[in-house]
Design a protein that fits this description.
Strand content: under 5%
Number of strands: 2
Strand order of the largest sheet: 1-2
Largest sheet: 2 strands, antiparallel
Radius of gyration: 15 Å
């Protein structure tokens, strides 16, 4: 249940960022003002695909992992959360050292991903191992 709630929260964050990008708007940035700078940077896309879209897909997969029972749900949960944390840490590095602007929405997504990773690990620990 916790993983599903975190996935919904992440879908809200990345959905908002995706929507503003689709509309050609800058996200509201109540802290720091770096959201538009990050969104418009060269680091906001990979192979022409927006990071907010990729984040939305990742959170959708995470939601699926919360619904799917057993091995496959745990595997999808750990893969999406590990990938999401690593990718979010890369983006934080880019924000701090390459873009020199911080997007609070991106930082919030990183926090959600870290929590989701903790939940995914707890699911595996509770099951005894990944294959049970």
């Amino acid at each position: 249940m916790a993983q599903g709630i975190l996935a919904l929260l992440g879908l809200g964050i990345t959905g908002y960022l995706s929507w503003t990008e689709l509309m050609g708007d800058a996200p509201a940035c109540v802290i720091g003002g770096g959201c538009a700078t990050v969104q418009n940077s060269e680091y906001a896309q990979i192979f022409g695909v927006s990071l907010s879209y990729l984040g939305f897909i990742t959170y959708a997969l995470m939601l699926a992992s919360a619904i799917v029972p057993g091995f496959w749900g745990r595997l999808l949960g750990i893969v999406t959360s590990v990938g999401g944390v690593l990718f979010s840490l890369w983006l934080l590095y880019a924000e701090l050292f390459l873009i020199e602007a911080i997007c609070p929405w991106c930082v919030a997504s990183l926090v959600v991903m870290i929590l989701a990773l903790a939940v995914a690990v707890a699911r595996i620990a509770k099951a005894g191992d990944l294959r049970s």
